[in-house]
């Protein structure tokens, strides 16, 4: 049985609904959750009854991004007999840049690329504050719904001195100039603006989000499966031919170079690149333009 998410089949299996279920951590993405999410996606992909997958989250937000220190996260990174076998390369046996690169390639980057090309239509049902790695999960889906109060931002630039998250979809989702602005400032955008720029597909009232997203999934599930998948593939291939796939690979390498640089910058006592010169400060600070955020990170 999954520990970190729920999986249910709706309408005789036509719709699979996956809900991230770590509400106390705002559905932070520890490695156990990401392993289970990959298994859930694969199960839905292999089920011929399933035509549409909904990905959402329980509690006050869709997901708060990468897990940066919960008890589960610390246990996963500590070597020992209880360690998950897929996590051994980062469980204390390797260190530094190499270990981080292996961790991020497998759990954050390659997973997200694969989910983007899943042989099902996928809908991200987002709510709350969708920051950093939360964007990655949403961007991997074919459609994104949000409630009227949802906010989006990549805060790793303004809080951690990084050039964006591992799956660098920013120029394609925000547009080039808006992407630069949002990454340089850490500002957030509302669901309404995300809809205006084409990143969010539908906006619903908070108390209607789940039902309306399910209605949308049902409409899509009524379409012939082959036609739906050919539409998805046509759009994905068009974007890939415009450079999306190669850009993702190149920007992941830049992300790792940025990690190595940041490690060097923060090696001394003086830390630069964060608003108040503190690495930990970003966990509780919202983007500079939107200070009302409910997140433990």
TrEMBL record:
Q: Which domain of life is it from?
A: Bacteria
Pfam families in the cross-refs = ECH_1
Query: Region Disordered: which residues?
Result: 64-89
The GO terms this record gives for MF are: catalytic activity
Question: Basic and acidic residues bias: where?
Answer: 69-79
Record's family? Belongs to the enoyl-CoA hydratase/isomerase family.
User: What PANTHER family is this protein classified in?
Assistant: ENOYL-COA HYDRATASE (PTHR43802), IP11341P-RELATED (PTHR43802:SF1)
Name this polypeptide is given:
Enoyl-CoA hydratase
């Amino acid at each position: 049985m999954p520990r970190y998410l729920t999986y249910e089949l709706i309408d005789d299996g036509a719709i699979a609904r996956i809900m991230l279920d770590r509400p106390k951590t705002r559905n932070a993405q520890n490695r156990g959750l990401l392993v289970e999410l990959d298994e859930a996606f694969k199960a839905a992909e292999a089920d011929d009854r399933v035509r549409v997958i909904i990905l959402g989250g329980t509690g006050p937000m869709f997901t708060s991004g990468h897990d940066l220190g919960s008890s589960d996260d610390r246990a996963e990174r500590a070597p020992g007999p209880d360690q998950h076998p897929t996590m051994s390369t980062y469980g204390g046996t390797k260190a530094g840049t190499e270990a981080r690169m292996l961790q991020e390639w497998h759990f954050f980057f390659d997973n997200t690329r694969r989910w983007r090309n899943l042989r099902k239509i996928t809908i991200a049902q987002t709510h709350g504050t969708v920051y950093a790695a939360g964007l990655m999960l949403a961007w991997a889906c074919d459609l994104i719904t949000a409630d009227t109060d949802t906010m989006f931002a990549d805060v790793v630039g303004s809080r951690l001195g990084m050039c964006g998250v591992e799956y660098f979809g920013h120029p394609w989702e925000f547009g080039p100039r808006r992407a630069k602005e949002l990454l340089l400032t850490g500002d957030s955008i509302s669901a309404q603006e995300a809809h205006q720029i084409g990143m969010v597909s539908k906006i619903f009232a908070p108390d209607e989000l789940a039902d309306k997203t399910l209605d949308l999934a049902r409409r899509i599930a009524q379409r012939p499966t082959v036609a739906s998948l050919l539409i998805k593939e046509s759009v994905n291939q068009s974007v890939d031919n415009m450079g999306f796939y190669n850009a993702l690979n190149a920007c992941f390498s830049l992300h790792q170079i940025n990690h190595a640089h940041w490690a060097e910058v923060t090696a001394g006592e003086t830390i630069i690149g964060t608003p108040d010169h503190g690495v930990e400060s970003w966990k509780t600070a919202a983007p500079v333009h939107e200070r009302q955020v409910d997140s433990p990170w």
